[in-house]
Amino acid sequence: MHKIKESLPAMAIIALLLTAWWLIVLETHSVIFPTPWQVMTGTAELIKDGTLWIHIGASLMRVGVGFSLAVVVAVPLGLWLGWVKGAYSTLNPLFQILRPISPIAWIPLAILWFGVGNASPIYLIFISSVFPMIVQTTAGVHTIERRYLRAAQNFGVSRYTLFRQVVIPAVLPQIIVGMRIGLGVAWLVVVAAEMIALRSGLGYLIIDSRNAGNRYDLVIAGMIIIGLIGLLLDGVMRLLEGLKSVRWRYAH
In the chain, N or C terminus with fewer CB closer than 10 Å? Predict the structure, then answer.
């Protein structure tokens, strides 16, 4: 009941926006821009013929593979950079140069290197999400309170045990934050890549609906579905932040 009350303001704002959208379309007598009802019927059409699930599955598959590869690379690399001062001073400038480059700027190179199949968007997802996770993980190691390390050293633990039982648990919240940021970027990038180089996925659905008969009801439907899935993915990452092994470091 409490959660329902908390969600009421957000639901009221959404209802207000939908009402305003509907009234504006009716008032302007637009023959191109759809009403919310037309978007709903367009979505039902995609569900009925099964194409919606094909596009959603294709986009999620690409994000899942690219993001998983990024986690496998970024987390160990970030821990190493944070723990070894020489590695940080050597490689951090390179990552700081590469990190601000827009993932969209990598699209021509991705197509040149990997063609127009699934490898291109997977590479784009990897390259866009790996840097936020590296930076966040490295920062997490650097912000570990010295008292944790001193307490472990006072007990005479080895460097390996210190790293495994103190550093990794202490930096885990920052790793989850980096993963959350990286996943959000990955979801943005896959949609952009599908608009340019593929024939499946939600990005392709949007651009194909625009080109094939100005189906703006399907364009808006695709945009809304992208937003809802992005919200769901972020919610999953927020659940990870609530795990005991993650939140123990925070006072609250």
Answer: C
Does residue 1 surpass a pLDDT of 80? no
Which pTM value belongs to this model?
A: 0.84
Nearest one of 196, 179, 233, 204 to 106, comparing CA atoms: 196
pLDDT in tens, 193-203: 887 767 888 98
CA distance 234 to 248: 21
Q: 97-110 burial by CB neighbour count: b if 16+ within 10 A, else e?
A: eeeeeebeebbeeb
Tokens of 242: 């609530």
Q: Given a cut of 60, is residue 24 above it in pLDDT?
A: yes
